[in-house]
């Protein structure tokens, strides 16, 4: 696949992640969301000749870019979803890893490539699949889900106060002909709100549809269990979440695993970017980093 732009990507909370992972030069680290390879590159820099980095992503386009950036015999990049991690790792003949990183959400590549259909600012066809070869797209959700199913997605994954009104308007709008583009959907939400404030009112709707399309919260639950399962004793897990639904799952999973004596939580409160990082990289503003150590 050809790309019209190489989006600039600044890895979020990088010094904090590196510090929390407490990288051992000969360790094996798995980056569950290798994306454009920003965090992975920094991990590789700290590994010695015997260290290994396994980079996983469900987006083949991101993996292509990461592969160019991480040309290094210590790095292995593989396509997969969080839930596939145990088979991927054991398939490499690896029993335990020293650290695992999740930098959740979408990459700049996914947001900035208009034909991926993630942004309400674009007139691209509704898509939002992180892996464009797999599963139903945003178009299917918007045009095929019942009004009740749309309400569920908007409340569960968008915490959208106008979920009834927006679901009804979607169902009415798609009757004469399908809703095809991101701009059309954004306009339906905008009209339901009767105008826009500081943030576009479609932000929550787009988040909700994206989470549904990619089954992001189910994947996160599976991924956390899988990653902790493959950590060696004293191995570390770090997770960066960008919205409250993700962060709540991370917080509660860590708390339950802590109570069960599986991990010890290293971040009583999540770490957030400092003001200067937010100024340099506004996309980092909602990030929350939590870390834990396997007992
Ligand atoms: C925020 S980006 C990661 C950026 C990366 N840390 C970097 O520095 O370039 C998140 C990445 O995670 C991937 N991703 C999200 N959910 C996933 C899942 N369930 N399984 C595998 N990859 C996933 C996305 O495709 C995306 O490339």
Q: What do you see in this structure?
A:
This protein is 44% helix and 15% strand. With 295 residues, it is an alpha/beta fold. A 7-stranded mixed beta sheet has the order 3-2-1-4-5-7-6, with helices on both faces. Strand 2, helix 3 and strand 3 form a beta-alpha-beta unit. The longest helix is centred in the last third of the chain and has 16 residues, at 244-259. The N and C termini lie far apart (43 Å). The structure holds S-adenosylmethionine (SAM). S-adenosylmethionine binds at residues 9, 11, 33, 35-39, 56-59, 62, 81-82, 103, 105-107, 130, 219.
Q: How would you write the strand order of the largest sheet?
A: 3-2-1-4-5-7-6
Major sheet details: 7 strands, mixed
Helix-strand pattern: HEHEHEHEHHHHHHHEHEHE
Structural class: alpha/beta
Poorly predicted runs: 1-6
Rg, alpha carbons: 20 Å
Mean pLDDT: 94
Percentage beta strand = 5-15%
Number of strands: 7
Task: Work out the helix count.
Answer: 13
First-last Cα distance? 43 Å
Hetero groups: S-adenosylmethionine
Helix content: 40-55%
Shape label: globular
Name the features:
single chain; 295 residues; globular; binds S-adenosylmethionine
Could you outline the blueprint of secondary structure elements for this entry?
Blueprint: H1 14-21, E1 28-31, H2 38-45, E2 52-57, H3 60-69, E3 75-79, H4 85-91, E4 97-103, H5 108-112, H6 138-144, H7 147-158, H8 163-173, H9 182-193, H10 203-214, H11 216-230, E5 231-241, H12 244-259, E6 263-265, H13 275-280, E7 288-294
Parallel strand pairs: 1-2, 1-4, 2-3, 4-5
Antiparallel strand pairs: 5-7, 6-7
S-adenosylmethionine binds at residues 9, 11, 33, 35-39, 56-59, 62, 81-82, 103, 105-107, 130, 219.
């Amino acid at each position: 696949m050809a790309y019209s732009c190489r989006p600039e990507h600044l890895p979020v909370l990088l010094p904090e992640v590196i510090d929390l992972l407490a990288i051992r030069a000969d360790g094996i680290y798995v980056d569950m969301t290798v994306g454009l390879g920003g965090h992975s590159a920094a991990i590789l820099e700290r590994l010695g000749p015997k260290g290994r980095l396994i980079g996983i992503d469900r987006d083949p386009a991101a993996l292509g870019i990461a592969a160019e950036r991480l040309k290094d015999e210590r790095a292995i990049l593989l396509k997969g979803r969080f839930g596939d991690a145990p088979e991927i790792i054991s398939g490499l003949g690896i029993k335990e890893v020293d650290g695992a990183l999740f930098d959740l959400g979408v990459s700049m590549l996914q947001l900035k490539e208009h034909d991926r259909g993630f942004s309400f600012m674009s007139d691209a066809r509704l898509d939002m699949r992180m892996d464009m070869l797999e599963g139903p797209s945003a178009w299917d959700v918007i045009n095929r889900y019942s009004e009740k199913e749309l309400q569920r997605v908007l409340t569960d994954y968008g915490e959208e106060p106008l979920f009834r009104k927006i679901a009804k308007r979607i169902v009415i709008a798609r009757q004469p002909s399908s809703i095809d583009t991101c701009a059309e959907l954004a306009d339906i939400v905008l009209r339901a709100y009767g105008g826009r404030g500081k943030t576009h009112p479609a932000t929550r709707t787009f988040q909700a549809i994206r989470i549904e399309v990619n089954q992001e919260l189910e994947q996160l639950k599976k991924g956390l269990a899988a990653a902790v399962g493959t950590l060696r004793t004293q191995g570390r897990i770090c997770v960066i979440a960008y919205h409250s639904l993700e962060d709540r799952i991370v917080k509660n999973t860590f708390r339950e695993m802590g109570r069960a004596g599986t991990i010890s939580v290293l971040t009583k409160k999540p770490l957030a970017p400092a003001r200067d990082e937010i100024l340099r990289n506004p996309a980092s503003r909602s990030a929350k980093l939590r870390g834990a150590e396997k007992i």
